[in-house]
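Reopening this one. Same input as before:
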Amino acid sequence: MSKLELPKPTFIEDLGLHFMSEKSKRKHRIGLYKCGFCEREFKADIQSINQGKTKSCGCYNISKRFKHGLVGTRIYSIWIDIKSRVFNSKNKSYKDYGGRGITICDDWLDVRNFYNWAMSNGYEEELSIDRIDNDGNYEPSNCRWTTQNIQARNRRVGKPNKSGYKGVYIHPLTLKFRSQISINSKRINLGTFPTAVEGAIAYNNYIIENNL
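Same output, byte for byte:
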């Protein structure tokens, strides 16, 4: 596989001359940049950036990137997007992800592992990654590939619903979670479950199996 061009840091501001550390004998011109990998802002020697010696904020091992050759692919963009949402506090979606304590599992910090999981679990170009438990992390047991319509349907929760999941309701007497779905004004009961997550999984599986 041929090497693909690495995303470069984006220059934001010239911060002037500064010593790089207490032991530095001369000042360097420092710039503020946005990392091309994780979108985090970082400071670096402008000359080092221009010469290609500094390629990121340090969030990724460059030697691995040449091996996996995934830069520029859709899966790589999805992976970068996930990391930015859970790690980058400046990302506009951070409050709904990292800000709520949602993270990405250690195994998926290596994009090659994420790629292998995607290829073995139904990835297609028109699908998007979806977390089964909306409060859970990005990890194999909590993720799947779905259409945008399924994701949207899964996330719309009415105000009377206290379970936190579309189609899952708490039974007032048993305090168990009842899963149900309405198709053409007809209500279909999918079962009663001890947890809201299990009810949500049943609801999601019904949507996928019936291509709703």
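So the earlier flakiness isn't reproducible anymore. For the record, The beta strands are 10-19, 27-34, 41-45, 128-131, 143-146, 168-170, 177-183, 186-193.
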